[in-house]
Design goal:
Alpha-Beta Plaits; about 20% strand; Arc Repressor Mutant, subunit A; four-stranded antiparallel sheet; about 140 residues; alpha+beta; single chain
């Protein structure tokens, strides 16, 4: 990966739907050359995909919680990721040190919705139990 690749990635991080023409203009390449760079970055795995970033409040998802997940036995991070990806209310997840195996960031429209989503997390075969805290207010959000 060279400096131009890094600039291409920077463009796509700013706007995942940027045209090849715009990317090329930003980094000093033609549109076809920018496309070849993006294709090569995708093929190498440097760019894993593209996604839509949805404003949770636009969906009415204003109830927020952090949930510790405790697994049954030893569960690999990729296996746990596959389980958690099935729950769209899980907007962030990471493995952590300490007693819990993972920490989830969850969003829902209300407590009932959150409870149903947490039930789906607990229904996964590799999850033993969870412990959660509900966010009352955000003090700092550098997002």
């Amino acid at each position: 990966m060279d400096g131009i690749d890094e600039q291409v990635i920077s463009c796509l991080l700013r706007d995942g739907r940027a045209t090849y023409e715009w990317i090329g203009a930003e980094v000093g390449l033609s549109a076809p050359a920018a496309k070849r760079r993006v294709d090569r970055l995708r093929a190498s795995g440097a760019i894993r995909g593209f996604t839509a970033l949805v404003d949770p409040s636009a969906l009415g998802w204003t109830t927020e919680a952090y949930v510790e997940v405790y697994c049954r036995g030893t569960v690999s991070p990729p296996e746990l990721r596959r389980s958690l990806e099935r729950v769209p209310e899980v907007v962030g997840a990471c493995t952590v040190s300490g007693a819990a195996d993972a920490l989830l960031h969850m969003l829902a429209k209300d407590i009932t919705h959150l409870e149903r989503a947490m039930d789906r997390v607990r229904d996964e075969s590799n999850v033993d139990h969870t412990e959660s805290v509900i966010v009352l207010s955000r003090l700092i959000d550098r997002g």
